[in-house]
Each structure stands twice: as C-alpha cells, then as structure tokens.
Fold this protein.
Amino acid sequence: MTSIFQGRSLLAEKDFTKEELEYLINFSLHLKDLKKRGIPHHYLEGKNIALLFEKNSTRTRSAFTTAAIDLGAHPEFLGKDDIQLGKKESVEDTGKVLGSMFDGIEFRGFSQKVVEDLAKYSGVPVWNGLTDEWHPTQMIADFMTVKENFGKLEGITLTYVGDGRNNMANSLLVTGSMLGVNIHIVAPDSLQPTKEVQDLAEGYAKKTGSKNMITSNVDEGVKGSDVLYTDVWVSMGEEDKFDERVKMLQPYQINMDMVKKTGNDDMIIMHCLPAFHDTETEYGKKIYDEFGIKEMEITDEAFRSKHARQFEEAENRMHSIKAIMAATLGNLFIPHA
Ligand code: CP
Ligand code: NVA
C-alpha cells in the first residue's frame, strides 16, 4: 500500500475521515504552491480520465480538465448527449466499459445512486462532481479557501444563507461538522436540511465540538460569522421553482446590511458560483422582467466588496481537484493522514 487514498472514490464527504479531509486540504495548498512556482507534478502520467456531465458546468469541468493535464493525464469529456448512459445503456454496463478504458471517472448529474453505481461497477476511483445531494469536491476547495484566509479551520463560524436543503447546504453542514467549523444554516423553515442530514452532521459535531445552528432568524444566524456563504436560489434541475424561491428567499440575500449584522469587519463572503448578482445573464434579465429585482442571492455591491472571495474559491477548485485525483490515483507515498 503506497497511499491510504489509493484506489478510493469520493462520492460523499462521509467517505473520508476528518484527518483525511484535512490531508486533502493541505495537499491542495501544496499543489497550489507548486503550480505558482512552475514546478511540474506529473503524478498521473499516462492515465486516462473520463469526465461525465449530465448537468452543465464551468468550474468543475474546467478544474478537472486543467488539473488532469497538469498531472500528466488525458481528460476526455463525455457530455449527456455524447454517450448512452441511462438512455440506451445501463449505469452498470457503462461503468464496466468505462472502467476498462479509463483509470478514473468524474461524474456530475442528478442521482447520487448513479455515481455510487459507477464506482461499484467501474472498479476505478469515481469522483462526485455534484449530484442533487452532495458536492464533495467543492468542499475541499471551500475549506481550503477558509484556511487560506484565517490560517485555521477549527472554531471558525461559517453561515450559509438561502436554500438550506440543496447540495451545497448539505455538504457544508456535514463537512464543517467533520472539520470542527461551526455551521449555521439560515433558511426559511421549508428550505432547511432534512432530519437525516442534520443527524449526520450532529454526529460529527459531537466529536469535533463544532456548534451548529439551523434557524430562519437572519439576525441570530449571521451574528458573529467569519464567513457568509450563499448559493443560487434555484439549483440545476428545479428551474420551475423561481417564482416560489424569489418570494421566499429575499430576506436571505447577502447584502451589505447582512454583512454589518455579522459584527465582524474581517469576515469573508463565499459563493460556489455561478451567481445572480446583476442582470448580465439570461436568467438575471428574465427575473428582473418578472419580479423587478436586479439581484438574487447576493447584491452586486457585496459581490464586489472587499470581503468577497468567490474567485479565489473558484481557482481553488482546480488545485483541490488535482489533490483529490493525485491522492486517489497517483500511487503516492501517503502512509497515513
Ligand atoms: N461551483 C461549481 O460547481 O461550478 P460549476 O457548476 O460551474 O461547475
Ligand atoms: N446548488 C447548485 C450548485 C451549483 C454549483 C446547483 O446544484 O445548481
């Protein structure tokens, strides 16, 4: 055994321990340093990586592609209209075929079961590039960004405002609890995490001492936060929900008033992106025409403020995905986390 990570998949955060997540965060910081210094790190020379995307992506696709190339591997994009997955060919058969040709597989799509079955049948490491339930590769980049900014993770309070039951809210709540970061989920009652996700997080929080809060009260939830985090009000696949979400979520928008309510001038703002902070997009224009609002989950002022870190966070997707692929596929010497 060369690496404790070798041959493993990242399907959900709970697949790894606290120490293993910390290792991946630190390894990401190291790989970022190597990249900035121009030091080669071809840990995946000669490997083939399949990139399966049922849903659209800018960051995840670009990060996997550039990370694979920097590692000396060959990435191959297989979009939803390019292959037979689920339409003419089962996940089991697709997994067996891809596993016989590729050394690792990234999957972005709807169902968590599909990504799990791909791992089961392909026999190669599978990395979850987002499902309806979880966004684990995003977590390594996000907590890497928190660590870069504050020099530590334990004791930091990260408050997520908005749609509190989507993949991002689930992943932040569980991962933060694993890492000893206090997670507040501030969302209307009907958009809070399921009991199952809350219980999973609470189990970790008991061990790490992280203090979580799930509330619909904005003032109470954001007070004392080091990080304000938000995501789109309507996730991919639920585009019929704009009407209800715009009505429900406006009090949960990140704006400069909410920033002040944290009472912390050193706080940072994070967003996994893409973001609706102006009317420079088709959706942004449509929402303005229908509801008369120019900004959704974050105001343009907050998005461009001195607190904003979303573009550093986006860049970190590449360094962290590189760490995940190298650790699980690179035959590295990592005897323990
Ligand atoms: N944050 C994120 O996953 O971005 P993409 O949807 O562009 O990949
Ligand atoms: N919750 C969003 C995250 C995008 C990165 C979605 O699933 O569309």
